[in-house]
Amino acid sequence: MIRMINVWKTFGEQHALQDVNLHVQKGEFVFLVGPSGAGKTTLVRMVYREDTPTQGRVIIGGQDTTRMHRKYIPLLRRNIGMVFQDFKLLPDKTVYENIAFVLQVTGVSGRDIKRRVRNVLSLVSLSDKADQRPDQLSGGEQQRVAVARAMVRDPGIILADEPTGNLDPATARDIVGLLEEINRLGCTVVMATHAQPLVDTMRKRVVELVEGCLIRDQERGYYS
Amino acid sequence: MMKCLAHSVREAFISIRRNAVMSLVAMSTATFCLVLFGAMLILSANLNALASEVEEQVEMTIYLEDEVEEAHALTLAEQLVTVAGVRDVTYVSKEEALERLCERLGDQGAVLGAVGGTNPLPASLEVGLAWPEAADEIAEVARAMGGVDEVIYAQSLFEQLLAVTGFLRLTGYVLVSALLVAAACLIANAIRLTIFARRREIAIMRLVGATDGYIKGPFAVEGLLLGLVGALVAVLLVSYGYAWLVDNLRFTIPFLPLVPVDEIMDTTRLILLGAGAFMGFSGSLMGVRRFLHN
What we know:
The complex is a heterodimer.
Chain A: E1 2-11, E2 14-24, E3 29-33, H1 40-47, E4 55-60, E5 63-64, H2 73-77, E6 80-84, H3 95-104, H4 110-123, H5 139-151, E7 157-161, H6 169-184, E8 188-192, H7 196-202, E9 205-210, E10 213-218
Parallel strand pairs in A: 3-8, 3-9, 6-7, 7-8
Antiparallel strand pairs in A: 1-2, 1-4, 4-5, 9-10
Chain B: H1 2-18, H2 20-56, E1 59-64, H3 70-81, E2 86-92, H4 94-105, E3 124-129, H5 135-143, E4 148-152, H6 155-197, H7 199-207, H8 212-252, H9 261-293
Helix pairs in contact in B: 1-8, 2-6, 2-8, 2-9, 6-9, 8-9
């Protein structure tokens, strides 16, 4: 599903990624761990083609995104759901509109949008908050909206960049529980995180980056 | 396609309503610039009309020697008409010249008796010029013809006139062009402000896989609408303003040849509406492109 081959990313003199090789199979759940500045976010950005490698190749769903034309990037992203630390919700749209928005963008019909948004809202237990705006919700609820938005299109991959960074431990567990549930439905999940207790409890595949180098790739691994 | 267009129009109206103050600023800027632009168009058209009118009135007089007979004079006239830059040639006989002088003198015509009943005035050819710039060359040709005594035209006046009308036209065009560019930049900036206010939304749209066209659409429609509404207000102001000016100046400065309102306003309206739509549309696209490519 995700394949990185000898990927380097250099900013001036600084190497953000150094000769990274990674292969994530369809349906896997992978934790990306490492200290701040290790290159986790750079790696995630390459998967959704917000960045390109200085050297090497990134292949997503069989497509080499390194040489991908600008106009195909939206199509690639429609198969990737994203969850960020700062939620990235639109403050002047309601919960319903924030989720419906990603379906409208791809031209899904109005009736279909209604059905799919309702389904996904009930999955994240937010059906009763559909008409509220993000600033009326708690941090955990906002992140659940973001997860709902990421999964509403049934994407092949979900990328989560520090999704629990702004949440208390209990809420963080909730969110990761949701991601695990989505993963069980067949979706590949890659989650960059600092949350040691979560990684240690879940015992999923762990990929560790330090100073841009992939130093550990372990099945059923621990944080460190 | 239709769905995308409907989405763009709906979102454009929502955005205008949501950013009412900013939209009003953009629209007012459009109106302000287009009123100035319209005024320049009208001024330029009037300068052109004035310059053409003055140029048309410029004439050259070729005095003929006394012994030249009318038949020969007419032949000369026919030859002159074929010279480039000559619009028309009128033969004025000695008798006609005298009559004109009598008319001009009126009651004082009696003084002509003092010249002893002879006609001292020469016959002449009056040459209307199509292009005053050609005056020198036409004078050369005339002087080389047999029977021509003297060629009179206000050479320095011609040159001054050409310089002034040329300068006025050039100034008009330069000002209009500069204003057009300035107006486009001002509108682009005003629209950029509304886009800046929505930069988060644009970033999120890109992340969730919206195509560039889907993102640009609402902004393009918004710019187009703001430009068009701004242009409509400008059209009203310029139309009524110019009509008022023509009405008032007709009495204050009656000799000023103002271009009639009907003759100029149809084109001006179309140009202003077109310019408003184009500036709004291209301005918003310029603005949104920067955010898309960053």
